[in-house]
Amino acid sequence: MARRNSSRAMPGVARFHVPSARPDVRTVSLSADEAHHLRHVLRLDVGAEVIAFDGAGHEWRARVGEAGKSGVQLALEEASTAVAEPVVNVTLGIGWLKGDQMDAVVRDATMLGASAIAPFIWEYVSVPASVWRRAGAIERWQRVAVSSAKQCHRAVVPGIEAVRSLSQLIDDSMDRTLVVAVEPSAENDLGGRFTKTVKRPPRSTALALIGPEGGWSSSEITMLKDRGAELVQLGPRTLRAETAPTVLLTVLWTMWGW
Amino acid sequence: MARRNSSRAMPGVARFHVPSARPDVRTVSLSADEAHHLRHVLRLDVGAEVIAFDGAGHEWRARVGEAGKSGVQLALEEASTAVAEPVVNVTLGIGWLKGDQMDAVVRDATMLGASAIAPFIWEYVSVPASVWRRAGAIERWQRVAVSSAKQCHRAVVPGIEAVRSLSQLIDDSMDRTLVVAVEPSAENDLGGRFTKTVKRPPRSTALALIGPEGGWSSSEITMLKDRGAELVQLGPRTLRAETAPTVLLTVLWTMWGW
Question: What gap in Å lies between CA B250 and CA A233, rounded to an integer?
Answer without folding.
Answer: 12
